[in-house]
Amino acid sequence: MNAANYTDLTRDISRNLTALRTHNADVMQGFGALAKAAMAPGALDEKTKELIAMAIGVANRCDGCLGFHAKALVRLGATPEEFREMLGVAVYMGGGPSLMYAANAQAAYDEFRKAAEEA
């Protein structure tokens, strides 16, 4: 996946979830409630929680996760330094496969950051 595809990827995934929202409404509502509760500010702020989520997305090699969490991190003002430091932890915890996905995560973050700067 190259950097120019994360905007399209997240848009496509959102569109593809329409059938699940329609036919598995209870599951999707439950997942939405879980996400809202997990990401609500508490002892950890939302940005910290998004950095954790991104690290898990890198470690689990989830392309969609990279796009959605990169977009959220840009919205929340994560700095390039914070993002790279998180990637270091993700690589430490996930080894070589996570290193490959860290490069993709960086591309997703850069793509959404550039779009935010241009907006």
Structure description:
With 119 residues, the chain is mainly α. The protein has a single domain (3-15, 42-118), classed as AhpD-like (Up-down Bundle). The chain has 6 helices and no strands. Helix 1 (6-16) packs across helix 5, helix 4 runs antiparallel to helix 5 and helix 4 (46-59) packs across helix 6 (80-118). The longest helix has 39 residues, at 80-118. It starts with 5 loop residues before the first helix and ends with a helix. InterPro entries: AhpD-like (IPR029032), AhpD_core (IPR004675), CMD-like (IPR003779). This is Alkylhydroperoxidase like protein, AhpD family.
Tertiary shape = globular
| Secondary structural class | mainly alpha
Question: How is the biggest beta sheet arranged?
Answer: none
Query: Which whole number gives the mean pLDDT?
Result: 93
Radius of gyration: 14 Å
Number of domains as seen in the coordinates: 1
Order of helical and strand elements: HHHHHH
- Strand portion: under 5%
How widely separated are the two ends? 24 Å
CATH topology: AhpD-like
Beta strands, count: 0
Helix content: over 70%
User: Which parts are unreliable, with pLDDT below 50 for 5 consecutive residues or more?
Assistant: none
CATH architecture: Up-down Bundle
- What's the CATH first level? Mainly Alpha
Number of DSSP helical runs: 6
**CATH homologous superfamily label:** AhpD-like
